[in-house]
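Annotated sample (chain length 417).
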Amino acid sequence: MRTTPPRIAYLIADPQLCGGVAVVCQHANRLARRGFDVCIVSTAGADRIDWFPDLRVPVVPLSRLPRGIDAGVATWWETAWELRRLEIPRKCYFVQSDETRFYDSGRCERILARESYRLGYEFLTEARWIQEWLKAEFGQEARLVPNGIDLEIFREADPIVPRGGRPRILIEGPADMPSKGIADAFAAARGLGAEIWYVNYRGEPDPSWRPDRCFSRVPMEGMRRIYSSCDILLKMSRVEGVSGPPLEMMACGGTCVVARATGTDEAVRDGRNALVVEPGDVAGASRALRRLIADPALRRALAAAGQETVRRMDWERSIDLLEEFFLAAPAPPPRGGGAAAGLLAEREAAMAEICVRLKAHRAEIDTLRHELNALRLSKGWRIASALLEARRSPAALLRLPARVASIAWKKPPRRPA
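Output written by the structure step:
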């Protein structure tokens, strides 16, 4: 066992506002408080995470990776392949979900994600189901480091609007991820006479959802006021590692209706601290909401049990396990024959190269998308569009001189960020 803490780099991709990156920030912050030299390295080139409260470790782009790192920790399949290319003596992989499920069958990303779980790293995970899955599917022994709930961030707070009028249902999650079940949640909550609030992190909400209030990219500290304003959180995800929002809602004194997904049973218990429905069961979710709306005593009982649940989810006990892991001697690499090991190394190197090229192609596509958007906003494009429309419509032809003059003299619309 080491007597001095190792220097650790957690690798993330884009530091977007999401539960996975929040857990990495908790690891890094709490290890740093215990004397570890920790940094967060963004393979997307970011140098800050502005939405996580009181982050006390540096965030650096991969191009400025500090020297002398003892242990690198991949936290997403793409970062696992990036880590393979780095000269870091100890390579670890913190797996937070089965990330193949985020992609359709046949997509190269799905294949690369699956192959990343075969890499000869030391594995960590946050959930028992992931630990068991890694062992059964890939023969990987993963150290379990359960997530906690930060009760300094998530606690009852002054509500934006006090509870007590119409029942208020909260729906939370990115609009552009179908696996989060946002459309199912709105369908289940509709027609109950309740006020619906929605917190969106990414993507454009469907116009048919029509929430009473909509919030976008709320920093973590701001979420407690939203949770404290709502009676029920409805979470209809079909894919999760460990679902954080139901536990955050419990910490803020609310009640939850949750779809059964991998990771749900890590802390959520049907009829004890929440109501659980089957994934995609819109009618079942609607019945559960009606039951809670009609029975305030049940809401109070589930909320009280939920607060007891989160009080037991202490981050410091989990960081004890994490500290023990990093201070222990690295696990020996898996054994293999010389020829077989050489072929495996060649295969992994080829996949790492594919991952690099995929990342480069995505960057090129993003650049082309921005250039196309700029072109569409230009005067030339808009005049050409007016001419094309005039060729197809006599009415548009009559309006053409005025329309061209208007385009020529007006400033072009602002380019979206």
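Annotation: The chain is about 45% helix and 15% strand.
Annotation: The first strand starts at residue 7 and ends at 12.
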